[in-house]
Design goal:
Strand content: 5-15%
Largest sheet: 3 strands, antiparallel
Structural class: mainly alpha
Number of strands: 7
Shape: elongated
Helix content: 55-70%
Radius of gyration: 32 Å
């Protein structure tokens, strides 16, 4: 069994790599690429220069100017627990502090200067002893670096647009990107002289933008050197444990930062996952507590009125679309014009945070100075009240599948030879049902049980959207709409890993439930 488990764990690695690579390629090669929805939504309110600056920022942040496989390798290096190269540091605000990348070269700089202007040397950093001073030093260097990089990206975008205008004047759309920026490599093959002689006014505008780009590049080089000196000083706690100092280390996976929300992906998942788990941890036991006993009773009373009635009732429930049931629940059960017995959205009331945990009676002062006792439901009961409708919509479709599966598995075992032998020996009926038939009917139930875990992590998209529950389903839908690569990949990685671990758990439970199953 141990050898089998180790082999299965090792096989998970290439499976996860293949799965995440497929999702990575789909996001990267989709129209617009990373963050396309945000670019489109803001495009109507920004001029072409601002849009180009935003796109250039995306290219720099996600390394979109590199080949797709290189981008994937960088992401894989971040999420892998085995790290290569210098170890990250934890900044005072809790973010990961990485060694800043070198400033990228300005495009086509050889056409305007003989050599790139060099940044002045940075003075030797004196590390302060006070923690607040070190934190201030980091914030200052990090802020200057971010400002300088944004300035350089903006000037580079404006220069590329100016050169794109020149290419359009030359009637060479083949060297212009869809967003109106020049493509440096094809332009370099055409040559400087062709661009310079195309339009003197446009060339002068391009020279002006190139000069601004060079000045911004110098500032970026200086800011990069300052931030690198802060990193090299090792003023803050470093991530992980070194295996080979300076080369290989072991550290917690870094899921990256969400582009759409500008927050660490791990914190977003940490907020949404408990809500989804809470919904499922309430719904799943209800499904099993109702469906399995009713399936057992239906099997023991095959052909009876109960068997036919409960089967028809569960199938009728299963046939009701969840979307329709959720809309009806909101429109009638939660609408104050009708029943109004449940809240419409959310997990808590507006005053829920100030409530005590358990229900109790509180004294309320009346206008005449007297005190009256009023019942307050408390934070726990308020939460359950808000979860009632989402949980009801989650559970009703699960009764039919699990009950029918239990009934079918038990009917198959009722006709087995060992059951007839037990009955011939005079074994009590309840012992035949539970100790023999039900135990040998567990294998399909185990398969269904372990398949629930990935669904618990993924969340119910329909239910969470209808009832405005901020769980994993809503988070994934937002990530898909914004093409938030980091958030999508993190969710796919977690759900895929849990799915494979659940399948491994199913194999182990098979061997525990049936001694005839062995993996040796």
């Amino acid at each position: 069994m141990t050898t089998y488990i180790i082999r299965r764990l090792l096989l998970m690695i290439p499976t996860l790599i293949g799965m995440t690579l497929l999702i990575f390629m789909l996001v990267a090669m989709s129209p617009g690429g990373v963050g396309a929805a945000l670019q489109v939504s803001g495009g109507g309110q920004m001029d072409s220069g601002s849009i180009a600056q935003q796109r250039a920022y995306l290219e720099d942040r996600y390394g979109l100017d590199s080949p797709i496989l290189v981008q994937y390798a960088r992401w894989l290096g971040r999420v892998s627990p085995i790290k290569f190269g210098a170890r990250d540091q934890f900044a005072p605000n809790g973010d990961r502090f990485r060694k800043p990348r070198p400033a990228p070269e300005p495009p086509l700089w050889q056409w305007f200067v003989e050599a790139l202007p060099a940044a002045p040397p940075v003075a030797k950093l004196e590390v302060p002893q006070d923690a607040n001073a070190r934190s201030q030093l980091y914030r200052s260097a990090s802020g200057n670096y971010a400002q300088a990089r944004a300035s350089f990206l903006g000037t580079r975008s404006r220069f590329e647009i100016a050169m794109g205008d020149l290419a359009k004047a030359m009637d060479r759309p083949d060297v212009v990107r869809d967003r109106g920026q020049i493509r440096p490599e094809p332009a370099r093959r055409i040559g400087k002289e062709a661009f310079q002689s195309a339009d003197a006014t446009l060339w002068a505008a391009a020279e002006q933008q190139a000069q601004a780009m060079f000045e911004a590049h110098v500032r970026l080089q200086e800011a990069t050197a300052q931030l690198r000196s802060v990193y090299d000083a090792r003023m803050f706690r470093r991530a992980g444990v070194p295996l080979i100092p300076g080369t290989v280390s072991l550290a917690a996976p870094d899921l990256g930062t969400s582009f759409g929300k500008s927050r660490p992906v791990s914190s977003l998942i940490a907020e949404a996952l408990p809500i989804t788990l809470l919904l499922n941890l309430i719904a799943v036991p209800i499904i099993y507590a109702v469906a399995i006993p009713s399936g057992i009773l239906a099997a023991t009373r095959q052909g009876s009125l109960f068997d036919v009635g409960i089967g028809a009732f569960y199938v009728a429930l299963w046939s009701i679309p969840v979307v329709w049931a959720g809309v009806l629940a909101v429109g009638f059960l939660a609408n104050k014009e009708y029943l109004g017995a449940f809240p419409v959205t959310g997990l808590h009331s507006v005053a829920g945070q100030g409530m005590p945990m358990l229900p109790r009676f509180v004294e309320i002062a009346q206008p005449d100075g007297t005190l009256s006792r009023a019942w307050q439901r408390g934070y726990l009961l308020d939460t359950l009240w808000h979860l009632a409708l989402p949980v009801a919509c989650l559970v009703y479709t699960g009764f039919a599948v699990l009950s029918k599966q239990t009934r079918a598995a038990m009917l198959e075992n009722f006709n087995a030879d060992y059951v007839r032998t037990a009955k011939a020996k005079g074994v009590a009926h309840k012992d035949v049902v539970f100790r023999h038939v039900f135990r040998n009917s567990l294998l399909p139930l185990i398969t269904m049980f372990v398949s629930i875990f990935p669904a618990m992590l993924g969340g119910s998209v329909v239910i969470e959207r209808i009832f405005s529950v901020p769980g994993m389903g809503s988070l994934i839908i937002e990530a898909i709409g914004l093409r938030d690569r980091e958030l999508l990949l993190a969710n796919a990685l977690i759900v895929g890993l849990v799915n494979m671990l659940a399948l491994l758990l199913a194999d182990i439970l098979y061997a525990m439930a049936d001694p005839r199953i062995s993996y040796d």
